Amino acid sequence: MDFRVTITETLSRTEHVKASSAKKAEEAVRYRYRNLEPKLFYKSPNNDFTLVKGDCVDTLSKFKFGFDMVFADPPYFLSGGGISCQNGKVVCVNKGEWDKPTTPEAMDRFNFRWLSACRDHMKDDATIWISGTHHNIFSVQQQLLKLGFKILNVITWAKTNPPPNITCRYFTYSTEFVIWARKSAKVPHYYNYELMKQLNGDKQMTDVWRLPAIGRWEKSCGKHPTQKPLPLLARIIQASTKEGAWILDPFAGSSTTGIAANLLDRSYLGLEIENDFLNLSKARREEIENISIRSEYEERLKKVNVMLK
């Protein structure tokens, strides 16, 4: 016999299962649901930093919550066996299976899927920031338009300390792009214009940001292969949110987004699959419970003009 069983909590869903009785059907659904629930990995003492283990799309489907801002650093799909220079040594740029090149069609499907899931959990006036290079950013841009986002800017992050191009066959890769878009074309977004102008010597800030790549001081707990620098995230968060805002990162990695958010009195939810990266994120958040380390980070952000002195 077929039974329909409804479980109601923050989000209501109906499952179709086959069972010998209504009670058996309900037990089967509850068992299935328990195994699919988001797995809380870590929550900070004051509840401003939360890590959940799981695929971002599957995890977001389990609860209902609206975020003020999303920052996403999705796979660039560039780990095809190339080489680069790191700390004066030649290294392979392969970052993992999750970053292996794929077909344009598969990349579009992937980007549409996660962007759609994030959009469903953004407040009407929320904005999203997505980082990338030419490997993935054009696909991201097209999916944003398909989903009804309004693109506000495409930031060019010009790294002040890029690694050299050791092949000597191309210009040195020194930039990445960050798309800034709002959820709705008709609903105004928040932009902290006055602060950005103040941080830029009382001049309008342009869409070219000259900021350093990740520094050694940001690797005290370990390093993620695509870790973004704290100054970049601090500027993004201050530009587009107010204090107390909730920020989502669907590809948490080492949770630079969360560290920046907490230093700036915002709250953070990070979603991540890999245990190693979840442990790294937890260690980084626990590190800034130390007042002296937190103060050091704040001073470093002030030195590169992403926080007021």
Give structural notes.
The protein has 309 residues and is α/β, with parallel strands linked by helices. Helices cover 32% and strands 26% of the residues. The chain is built from 9 helices and 13 strands. The protein has helices at 22-36, 56-60, 104-119, 137-146, 193-199, 230-240, 256-263, 275-287, 291-303; strands spanning 2-8, 12-18, 39-43, 49-53, 67-72, 83-86, 89-92, 122-132, 150-159, 175-182, 208-211, 246-249, 267-272. It has a 9-stranded mixed beta sheet, sandwiched between helices. A two-stranded antiparallel sheet has the order 1-2. β12 (246-249), α7 and β13 form a beta-alpha-beta unit. α3 (104-119) packs across α4. The termini are far apart. Mean pLDDT is 87; it is low at 6-13 and 31-36.
Q: What is the overall number of helices?
A: 9
Spatial strand arrangement across the major sheet:
3-4-13-12-5-8-10-9-11
Cα end-to-end separation:
69 Å
Give the overall pLDDT as a whole number. 87
Order of helices and strands: EEHEEHEEEHEHEEHEHEHEHH
C-alpha-based Rg, rounded: 21 Å
The parts where pLDDT drops under 50 for at least 5 residues are 6-13, 31-36
Q: Which percent bin holds the helix content?
A: 25-40%
State the secondary-structure class: alpha/beta
> In one word, what is the shape?
globular
What is the beta-strand fraction? 25-35%
How many strand units? 13
Biggest β-sheet strands, sense, barrel: 9 strands, mixed
Give a brief outline of the structure.
The protein has helices at residues 22-36, 56-60, 104-119, 137-146, 193-199, 230-240, 256-263, 275-287, 291-303; strands spanning 2-8, 12-18, 39-43, 49-53, 67-72, 83-86, 89-92, 122-132, 150-159, 175-182, 208-211, 246-249, 267-272. It has 309 residues and is of the alpha/beta class. A hairpin with a 2-residue loop joins strand 6 and strand 7.
